[in-house]
Task: inverse folding
DNA sequence: CGTCAAATTGACAAGGTTCAAGGACCGTGG
DNA sequence: CCACGGTCCTTGAACCTTGTCAATTTGACG
């Protein structure tokens, strides 16, 4: 509890935490470059775009605070959210010249970002970035499995568990609780459902005692149990090295 | 037609074509390394795994011939195919040490692969690999949109159009036609549907004159029109450079 | 000709959507 | 302090797309 509160005062902590989680061997050069980068921040308001599909990717960003979503909009207005972007996540990571964004990224809450240090700063930073990419990709595949083969109840549980895990890594969740800025409609757009149905399934989940969600406060009462019940398996992309 | 036939005799042609499509500026060093690599091939039988979820990734492969699928299997037997892997595609591309596979790759037809030359061979090859990764990622996002927001008819059309486009790049499709090795059940596992429903929708598509599919021969009668009708937009990850 | 996997069909059930309306919450301005 | 407006949540009933189960047919191949 005190640990959580202490962190809340340093807006850069979650991002730093995630990078260390990606590569515990992050070296001095990397940390120094990150600290410098984090002194120049920019904040984007809700609904504004951080990156636009079809446009050139001009900079690589590190999210310090707030939630965003990677979105694709169909011609007739249907909308699909690919994944959520949380503090510590990188945006526009790519290793070639003249890249074009293959999706739009839109701020859900106010989002604070800074330019991400170039990978050339240190091999340890480069490794962190590479692992970040692999993790993102694994999350995309988790999303595909959710949409393709899980029913509504399982989709919701699986997504909430993923968010809990990711927020835990950066110190923004503890004891199954975190601040949830998503509306039911946004959840629906991520899960390929309607907001009406998300609402109904949330009622059921509440009555089943699986979660408590009032206002922005969300608590999963028994994450491990729920995880087992829906047969979830967490993302892992690196072998533990001796 | 003669071009197609000529290619059929060189099993390495599709892969080489795709790499040139990814980076037209592929240099001599890259081509030489590829040619050497392609002399040592390995063939995997249908249903065998080319890579296994949770296991270390030990080598990077280039597919020369055949189709494979990136698959995730749930505890209760449900199966989701993330995407299909076609000639010219790379498997196990990643830029850090001790990577672990986040999904299983299983051969659908007999699949011939060779070890992919190391990226250090040439910057132009490295760029081709990087663009290949970005393209793969874009395809994963296309798959998410399909599963989340398209109905059964649209999903099938969109997937077939994607396959047509990708096979066209490597010279394995022309005039809307290609060899289709997938069973309806495999298509269903990719599209989050049941094989029964895929079958029904295919009947409709046939009766609507959208496609002809008998045996392995598949033809989309009016790809551009179909593409427009379902509001499809193709994958693009690099800006055209002057 | 027999065998096996794949495709096809029908009847029925279920999960999710649609449409429409009402209620709760929250910040704003008078 | 209260009224107002907007956004989000909640609920019901009818409807529709897709799934399930089970049987039959087709086609490739030895």
Result:
């Amino acid at each position: 509890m005190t640990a959580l509160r202490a962190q809340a005062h340093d807006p850069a902590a979650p991002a730093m935490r995630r990078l260390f989680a990606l590569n515990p061997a992050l070296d001095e050069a990397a940390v120094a470059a990150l600290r410098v980068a984090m002194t120049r921040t920019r904040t984007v308001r809700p609904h504004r775009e951080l990156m636009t599909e079809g446009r050139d990717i001009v900079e690589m960003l590190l999210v310090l605070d707030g939630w965003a979503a990677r979105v694709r909009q169909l011609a007739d207005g249907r909308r699909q959210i690919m994944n959520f972007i949380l503090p510590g996540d990188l945006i526009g990571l790519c290793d070639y010249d003249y890249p074009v964004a293959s999706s739009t990224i839109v701020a859900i809450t106010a989002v604070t970002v800074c330019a991400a240090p170039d990978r050339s700063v240190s091999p340890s930073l480069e490794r962190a970035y590479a692992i970040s990419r692999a993790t993102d990709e694994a999350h995309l595949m988790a999303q595909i499995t959710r949409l393709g083969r899980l029913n509504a109840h399982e989709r919701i549980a699986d997504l909430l568990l993923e968010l809990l895990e990711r927020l835990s890594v950066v110190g923004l969740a503890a004891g199954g609780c975190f601040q949830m800025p998503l509306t039911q409609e946004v959840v629906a757009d991520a899960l390929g459902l309607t907001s009406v149905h998300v609402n109904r399934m949330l009622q059921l989940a509440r009555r089943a005692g699986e979660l408590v969600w009032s206002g922005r406060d969300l608590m999963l009462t028994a994450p491990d149990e729920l995880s087992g019940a829906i047969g979830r398996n967490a993302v892992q992309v690196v072998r533990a090295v001796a």
